[in-house]
Each structure stands twice: as C-alpha cells, then as structure tokens.
Design brief:
Layout (H helix, E strand, L loop, with lengths): L10 E7 H7 L6 H10 L3 E3 L8 E4 L4 E4 L7 E6 L3 H10 L6 E7 L16 E2 L2 H6 L4 E4 L6 H11 L3 E4 L2 H6 L1 H9 L4 E2 L10 H9 L4 E7 L2 H11 L4 H10 L8 H4 L2 H15 L8 E3 L7 H9 L3 E11 L2 E11 L12 E8 L4 E7 L3 H33 L1
Parallel strand pairs: 1-3, 5-6, 5-8, 6-7, 8-9, 9-10, 12-14
Antiparallel strand pairs: 1-4, 2-3, 11-13, 11-15, 13-14, 15-16
Helix pairs in contact: 3-14, 7-12, 8-12, 9-10
The structure holds NADPH dihydro-nicotinamide-adenine-dinucleotide phosphate and L-homoserine (HSE).
L-homoserine binds next to helix 9.
C-alpha cells in the first residue's frame, strides 16, 4: 500500500510462507488447503489466470519482488456472432486485460444484435474486419465459404487462428495437418467434443505412448435425438429441440448424416495415428439408418443404439468408420446421454483413457474456444518477450 493509500501493483509476493498465506490470503486461498499443504510439506503456486508468474507458497520465507507492468491485451477479431460467437464475445468481456475485440464479422447486418454488442465493431466485410490487423482471429462462422477465406487470409497475414469449424479443418489437408500437428498458430480444440478435451487428451497421450484405438460418441445433436426418440418423442420434434438448444449445425443434415462425426474423427485420428486420415478414408452411416427394429434390438439386449465414431490400427493401415452401434451396459460408452460426448482411447499397453462432458451448445463450446485463445495469447506474448529481449540485447 502506497503512502497515499492506493495499491501498488508493481510489487508482489515472490514467496509466501504457510503462515503468511493464512494471514493475508484467507479470501484467496482456502485455509484448509494451506493447512493440508503445511501438514504434508507441499509447495504450490498462486497465480492469476494468464499471469506470467506467481507466488510460490510453502516452507519458505516470505519475500517480495517487483513485477513488470501487465502486458497489453492482444487484439482479436471474431468471425461469427451466433451460438458460439456470442458466447465467446461475452466471455471476453470478463477478460479485458487479455483480449481486446477490434471487430466482429457477421453475414446479415440488418439483424438485431444484443444490446451488449457495440455496433461499431460489427461488419459484414472481410476486408474491413482484417484492416484492424489483429493478433488473433477466432472463426465461429462455420462452413467452407467465408470461413475458409477468413482463415486463409488471417494465416497469410501472420495472425494466429482459433477455429471451431471441424468441417473446414477436415476437408482441407493443409489445415488438417496444421490443426493436428502444429502448436499454436491454428488451434481447434473446440472443433471436437465441445467442452470435452478430446484433441488435447489424444495429443497428450500420443506424445508418451502408442494409441491403437479411439472410439467415441462425438455428435451432441445425434445423441440428444437418439435419447429423445428412445423416450417416445418423434424424430422431427427431437431435432427441433436440438436446434432450439443451439446444438445442431446451421445445416442439420451435417449432424444427421453422420458427416459432422466424420470430420471430427478425421481430426482425432490424424492426431492419434500421426498420419492424415482424410474424410474419404472414413465410412459413414447416419441417423437416417435408424429403424424401429434396430431400436428394439438394442432395448431387448438392455443396450442403447448410439452413433459411434471409431478408428483403429490394423497391419494394413488405419480403419475408420462412423455408424450406428448397440452399446451394452458393460461398455465404457454406455450411459452417455443428452448432448454429452464421450471418447475412449486405448493405448498399446491396454490402458483405457475416457474423457466425457457436454459436447455441444453455447457454453461448453465457448469454454473450449476461450481456452484455445488463451493458449494463443501466451504464445503471442512469449514471442513478444523474445523480441523485446533481443531488442534489449541489440541496444
Ligand atoms: P451459428 O449459425 O449460430 O452462427 C454463425 C455465425 O456466423 C452468425 O453470426 C452468422 O452471421 C455468421 N455467418 C454465417 N455465414 C457468414 C458469412 N458468409 N459471412 C459472415 N458471417 C457469417 O453457428 P454456431 O455458432 O452454432 O457454429 C459456428 C461454428 O462452430 C461452426 O463451425 C460449428 O460447427 C462450430 N461448433 C458449433 C457448436 C455448437 O454447439 N453450436 C459446437 C462446436 C463447434 P449472422 O448472425 O448475420 O447470421
Ligand atoms: N452440431 C455439433 C454437435 C456441434 O451436435 O455435436 C458440436 O460440434
């Protein structure tokens, strides 16, 4: 606290003892957690989300350090302001120190927008949008028209890109490769599994061991419809509900036909097996193949009819398919309801890893997009820091 009673944010605890944490950190750190750490002699770091450093707490003396002023927010343009785009726009309002939205691209300028969207940011011109020279472009438009133009132009201009558009990423081999094997120039966690860390988990696992099979429920809309149909609701009514909930694609045929799952499987299998598993290598059956007999057969076996995406290694290469399957109670995919997604990954050592969560809808997807954006921001700042230190050395 400065002499004039204002707070001095340029100094912080570099280290803090357990007793200091308990004395000053009550509202910030759970006293029970500090006491637990003290009993076990554990060290931990306390840091604000996105901060470049933090306070090391543990069996140490308390010490202060001065810190550099916080870096400026990175500039972002947002393509799309629909189910996902508006979620991202709103979440970013709570992260003003990290992101500054400098433009939003929409299709129809005459549409009413929510009051919290400043209209001076909104444009229907890609040229105008990119004149803002953003650090980061977030694409939540969907499809392969304007979305593709935006992604390509952004990449050519050196911007980092976050995209939730599995269709675009899967059908363009260059993008598929970059989204699967690149690090932080094109990030697409939100394109598979909504809030489920599907691509991230596959990526983390494959760095350590060989993956032999991936199998999952990857389309929230289809899973939701199957659930409702099983409960006696008509297919059409179930689809309308999925659309009202913001789960379905703008063109729901992509969900129903199984194609959305094919795109997601292409991304997952490419990352899991280290080779391009393009969409033409994946066989596909969709919900149009549901029959009363198949539903009844599932019931008779105490099972559930599900749309399942699988890919596995064989001596002759990767086999990948999307199709309807009866899942029995002993199987790990059993009991995945509503718009949930679930992925089971099996490694060569017969280890099975399961990730599960909400697979579609505004907030589950927004969480994933924001997390990708934070990753890009960290990468952008570390490049900036390297440039700064090179400049300092040179001078
Ligand atoms: P929406 O249809 O709700 O929103 C699309 C937005 O993009 C709208 O704001 C629309 O503008 C804008 N847009 C569409 N076409 C153009 C164009 N030609 N030029 C400029 N802007 C355009 O889609 P979602 O938010 O549901 O999905 C967006 C992306 O996220 C898709 O790739 C989808 O696959 C993916 N995704 C969606 C999930 C979900 O649960 N909904 C989950 C995971 C990924 P306007 O407002 O003027 O119509
Ligand atoms: N339409 C997609 C689904 C959105 O229902 O799974 C999430 O990718």
């Amino acid at each position: 606290v400065r002499e004039d009673s204002s707070l001095d944010f340029s100094t912080r605890y570099a280290t803090a003892s357990y007793s200091e944490c308990l004395r000053v950190g009550g509202p910030l750190i759970q006293p029970k957690a500090v006491e637990f750490a003290e009993r076990h002699g554990l060290k931990f770091t306390i840091a604000r989300c996105c901060s470049q450093g933090g306070t090391l707490a543990g069996p140490v003396e308390s010490r202060f350090e001065s810190v550099d002023p916080a870096p400026a927010p990175i500039s972002v343009v947002l393509g799309g302001l629909g189910t996902v785009g508006l979620g991202v726009f709103r979440w970013f309002k709570s992260l003003p120190d990290e992101f500054r939205i400098v433009g939003v691209l929409v299709k129809d300028l005459s549409k009413d927008r929510p009051e919290d969207v400043p209209l001076h940011l909104v444009t229907d011109s890609l040229d105008v949008l990119l004149e803002a020279r953003p650090d980061l472009v977030i694409e939540t438009i969907g499809g392969t028209g304007t979305a593709a133009d935006l992604v390509h132009r952004a990449r050519s201009a050196g911007c980092r890109v976050v995209s939730a558009n599995k269709q675009l990423l899967a059908i363009e081999p260059e993008l598929l490769k970059e989204a699967s094997f690149g690090r932080d120039r094109l990030v697409a966690s939100a394109s598979v599994g909504g809030s489920v860390p599907a691509l991230e988990t596959v990526g983390g696992l494959v760095a350590r061991e060989e993956i032999v099979t991936i199998k999952g429920i990857l389309n929230g809309t289809c899973n939701f419809i199957l659930d409702r149909v099983n409960a006696g609701v008509s297919f059409e009514a179930a689809l309308s509900q999925a659309q009202e909930l913001g789960l379905a694609e703008a063109d729901p045929h992509l969900d129903i036909s199984g194609l959305d799952c094919v795109y997601k499987l292409s991304l997952l299998a490419t990352r899991a097996f280290g080779e391009l598993v393009t969409v033409d290598r994946i066989t596909c059956e969709g919900l149009d193949q549901i029959t009363a007999e198949r539903l009844q057969k599932a019931k008779d076996n105490d099972g559930e009819l599900k749309l399942v995406a699988s890919a596995w290694k064989t001596p002759n290469g990767i086999v990948a398919r999307v199709g309807l399957e009866i899942i029995l109670p002993h199987q790990l995919l059993f009991g995945c309801t509503k718009e949930a997604n679930r992925l089971v990954i099996e490694t060569e050592g017969h280890r099975q890893v399961v990730v599960n969560g909400k697979g579609a809808g505004r907030w589950p997807t927004t969480v994933s997009v924001v997390s990708d954006a934070l990753l890009c921001r960290r990468a952008e700042l570390s490049v900036g820091n390297i440039r700064e230190s090179e400049r300092a050395k040179a001078s």
